[in-house]
Amino acid sequence: MFRVKSSRTISTTASMQSDNQSEIATAKFAGNAVIRVEDVHKYYELGETRVHALRGVSVEIQHGEFVAIMGASGSGKSTFMNMLGCLDRPGSGRYLLEGIDVSKHDKKALAQIRNQKIGFVFQGFNLLARTTALENTALPTLYTKIDNDERQKRAIEALALVGLADRMEHFPSQMSGGQQQRVAVARALVNHPSILLADEPTGNLDSRTSVEIMEVFQDLNDKGLTIVMVTHEHDIAQFAKRVIVFRDGKIRKDDGVLSRPRASEVLKTLPTLED
Ligand SMILES: Nc1ncnc2c1ncn2[C@@H]1O[C@H](COP(=O)(O)OP(=O)(O)OP(=O)(O)O)[C@@H](O)[C@H]1O
Ligand SMILES: [Mg+2]
After folding, report:
1. Which domain holds residue 220?
2. What would the mean pLDDT of 158-177 be, rounded to a whole number?
3. How close is the Cα of 54 to the center of ligand 1, in Å?
């Protein structure tokens, strides 16, 4: 594994508000927070058993943050991400996305919000095998009203953003794991979302390729994109600006990253395939 180097001090991290400040907080953050989660609980019913997957989660994420979510298996990370991504609703509590309370939205309304505001990157890439990088990237635009020329233009732009301008006509089987993951990131960006959500974006990748994906994320975040990603790896979490740790469906830790490495610098210290 690579070592964490460099030292860029980060002064962010929104602190949580105490109860008696909540009204002020609502007024203050209504316009600013991209994500505001208020005392969210989530239950899964499975026959006789009931799993209490989220147990009172409250958190705010501001525009331009880059947050890593960590925690043991089963601690509620994916449940939380699915809610942030409007794939699922909270059982109780509220979720405000860019100031809009989406907790009570029905499936259709959630799908619409998701398509407009959220880019999702899943662990397994989920690319269509017989479809080029360009077509894979353009896929989410098919559910919008934009015309064909604009679709093409956006897909080209998104691929360029992730450094794949020269791989547009390649099929997934003709690309490395990291390149396929970058196509998945381009696809997540093609509708110009407000947030990029990634559940273990480096889960299937070797160390160097993982850092390459973090380089893409840091570049996108530098350009102003808000990013929330789940990772099991401490070294990967350090590329974010803030780390939130879940345990048993609750947030146990929420800290800024003080000595944040630049992925582009770390890459210089890692061996390449040719080495
Ligand atoms: N669809 C579901 N039906 C029933 N229980 C579920 C469902 N999805 C998740 N759970 C349960 O909810 C809890 C939280 O699951 P979740 O997938 O959010 O964990 P996680 O932190 O993402 O874990 P991992 O690191 O393994 O991905 C677990 O106990 C899990 O078994
Ligand atoms: Mg998970």
Report:
1. 31-267
2. 94
3. 10
